């Protein structure tokens, strides 16, 4: 009996999470508690709607004509790797149908199901939120080391990696942090693209709806100068194909 | 007459087109498909800039003068009525204006003198008494139609159930094959028509006599076109001998049409591929450079941006923003597998950069999965940069309609060029018909009885089957009355305002489509879905009219790729079309149906009470076949998929979808935005969808333009099958556009 997957939302026209036109599936549940999380409603393990992989596959096939040669399906979240076992038949089927698969992950989960899933994964969008272990813990609630370890393992599996960095003023925008983050990124083989995601406040109203306090309410969105500086530092450290979103 | 020796000298290939009228053979034999990218294109020259800058001064005067620069109130416009007019005579490469001055409108009272009078009165002007005097003796289309209308038609019309009919304005929608003048010259075209007339012999009957008279009018028009061209110093009796003449001849043929007629939509057709043959030859022979080729297209397009007709304020409700639908169709494929994309396809789109964005000419890309990649990307780039173009499914239309030489009449309607015409029929208000079904055949505002024998519905929640039965009864009656009114309208239009200049460029006795239309399909789908899947109870007033609806529970909404509701929309369209087909139209035309609203979706909304989908009374409909604003909540592709399910075979006049997306939601970089838009269009049309307007812009920008129109003279957006200068829409229309669904990213 296949496991059901808890789904928070499905975006049919995803253009921000991997190459081409993609169906982006936001799964329910995440082990990280990032202070700025834009989708706090996806954090609880319970919630969302249960779907079988076949249902998700059928939905993707209703829009396969739009995928072209680059597109396909991206599993985001929440944290998709929490559903690695249940996602495996989905990814196999998508690959079989001739489309690409991508995971938008925080890299905090590793087990043999994840290893199996990565075999059928074309793109890993890996979000490393901070390079300083201490601040990382403060910002996300979890250790940094498993995430860096994940990057190495994915690289050894010859995966195509897109690194992502949510740029949060006052939290991870110091020159020192930026240099160090970029040096780590440059050391990972298989990184094809680096995306700087400027912190935004579009998710803030969700906290009020959920009756939770938003702890970064004094943080402003990055200035154009900061975005440029970040890109420049990343380039200096040898990162290529940097996109500021 | 063209001789073999002329053809040899012209270096054109092919044989069939020489002795018989066959433009398509000329294209097949001489086309140079272009498979490359946009890098060859040239920017505007100094000459182009000086002409365009002068034109912009006139356009500003027009805007500053409440949309009317000047008008000649004393001259009935005909092919030869006005002296030549110029923008900047010494610099123009392509000449000709509708009157003797730029943006000076003329009067064309044969469609309806009352409308001309009211258009003038609204602006504090009076028609010249000498013109009025003419109509003491002559009849016009408007009077003729109303003399034949019966009580029932008047009842449906005055209660806004059938609406916007071309019974007091010119029907338009006919596309002349303006290329014919360039390829053959007027003398040869007259000779062809004389042959046709000679063949209409034997025992006479109404049809034959009518046709003989029509051909005689067409020949007279061809003679007038020669006179008009001569006044500009050109002899169009002979074929065009180079690219500049070919463009000029095509434009003269079109100019004759728009001097004689003020049809709601008067498309250009598909001239770019044809003109490319002349341009390619001149380039090859070293007679012109690429910059000069672009200049000629730029100059031609400047002329097309100046097309104007005199319209009254009431007209703006249904066709907002003063559109003229100079629709030029670009691209598509030939039956033999070659593409119709040429360098001149690119050159037409390039005018949106060289002259800036513009609603007219209404540039329409005929999209095929097989279009060259370079062209697909250029189109997508133009959409991202200008929001000025629309797309139609060439693979679908070529297969369904059996022609690879066609244009788009008005917004979205297929027309085989020179072979077929259509009789325009505006549209009916389907939600209004649904309300008749719920109100024992009475209209919902005042309770006036429109239909007899519609049974009363039981108290309590509505039952889907019972409502559907009543609704079908209403549609049967609606189709009958609608067909009747269309017969009268087109009979009278032929009789009193025949399009002789356009018909001179079309085969004698062509195929005719009668273009019916329906508005409000998304409201119908959602209303019936609500009745089927939720519990909907009418709130009735003291005379039993449903003035509101109480809805308990949720229901599937059109625009989310949910078959439960999408198939209702499909079923209703098929049913209504089948009903229309039961009636014999004037000239034995073939019935077609459009799911299109132009901008009348706002007016329809104003005239329609609350509907069971939860739409409050008087609120705007969604445009065309679009999902209702904000109800398509599952992302852009699900929204597109719902519309794609509507069946083109029952709506061959066109299924319009207007799609608005913010640039960022298309992709992170410009390059990705272009690639993703190409993939999106490939996907949408692979689903057998018919039409897509693409707007790539931010809502904030529109709000700013709403508040500060003076800063946005050229801001162009697609509305429903056409584009408009946003600031020339009424404030109501502007707000409706701002409220539409903009697909954004999470």
Strand residue content of chain B: 5-15%
Query: Which range best describes the helical content of chain A: under 10%, 10-25%, 25-40%, 40-55%, 55-70% or over 70%?
Result: 25-40%
Number of strands of chain B: 19
Helical amount of chain B: 40-55%
How many domains comprise the coordinates of chain A? 1
- The quaternary structure here is heterodimer
Structural class of chain A: alpha/beta
Shape of chain B: globular
- Largest interface, and how many residues on either side? A-B, 25 and 28 residues
Instruction: State the low-pLDDT regions of chain B, or none.
Output: none
H and E string of chain A = EEEHEHEHEHHEHEHHE
Unreliable residue runs of chain A: none
Distance between the termini of chain A: 41 Å
Structure write-up:
- The complex is a heterodimer of chains A (245) and B (746).
- Helices cover 34% and strands 22% of the residues of chain A.
- Chain A is an alpha/beta fold and 245 residues long.
- Chain A has a single domain, classed as Aldolase class I (TIM Barrel, Alpha-Beta Barrel), CATH 3.20.20.
- In chain A, strands 3-1-2-4-5-6-7-8-9 form a nine-stranded mixed beta sheet.
- In chain A, strand 7 (160-167), helix 6 and strand 8 (191-198) form a beta-alpha-beta unit.
- The longest helix of chain A is centred in the middle third of the chain and has 14 residues, at 84-97.
- Chain A is globular, with a radius of gyration of 17 Å.
- In chain A, 45% of the residues are buried.
- Chain B is of the alpha/beta class and 746 residues long.
- Chain B has three domains: 1-30, no CATH class; 31-138 and 169-418, Anaerobic Ribonucleotide-triphosphate Reductase Large Chain; 424-490 and 511-656, no CATH class.
- Chain B is built from 28 helices and 19 strands.
- In chain B, a hairpin with a 4-residue loop joins strand 18 and strand 19.
- In chain B, 57% of the residues are buried.
- The mean pLDDT of chain B is 96.
- Classes of the chains: A alpha/beta (245), B alpha/beta (746).
- At the A-B interface, strand 1 and strand 2 of A face helix 24, helix 25 and helix 26 of B.
